[in-house]
Amino acid sequence: MAGGPMDEIHKNCRLILRVLLLPVLPLVLSLNMQQVMAFEGDYVWEARFKTSLAKARSGHQAKDQYAVGDMYLRGRGTAKNAAKALYWFLLAAEQGHRKAAYKAGHLYLYSNSLPPGASPKQALPWIRKAALAGYAPAQYELGRLFFSGKVIKRSEPQALKWLGRAKAANYAPARKAFDQMVKRLVKTQTAFVDQNRAVK
Question: Which of 9, 26, 31, 66 is deepest in the core (most CB within 10 A)?
Fold first, then answer.
């Protein structure tokens, strides 16, 4: 039986929904899918942060301590806080987590948000620890520090050694830096030899 009471109810419901949704439709359509995904991502990161923080506090899990430090550093699941990131990186680094040691050293070198008294010179032991453990970004950074003379006495042989190790580990920035340094040294040596020949 067409046009029965149920059809009339469905028709009225559709009409009510149209009337209710019409004013908010432009708002719904203006929502950017990235904003929706970002909101969902924030929720996921907050949950990860809480879980990792609980694990990091309850035991001596270097991977969880590193994860908490990284979330503080990036502001994922919590507000960015370099000092808290450093605290958690140091806890993980003391247990041999090489990436945490590198990030602790990197914060000492480059962060402007650490507590008073923190010094770039405090970076060296942590970057060296990560470099000795075979972490290529730390080897690269240690090579750069030796080359620049920042926080450590300048040493081209040490710079070549550490950049070479990072290059051997196929770390792209080290390949470029090592090759540029070798070219520069060859050019300097050639100029020195030429100068000595001219004097004779």
Answer: 66
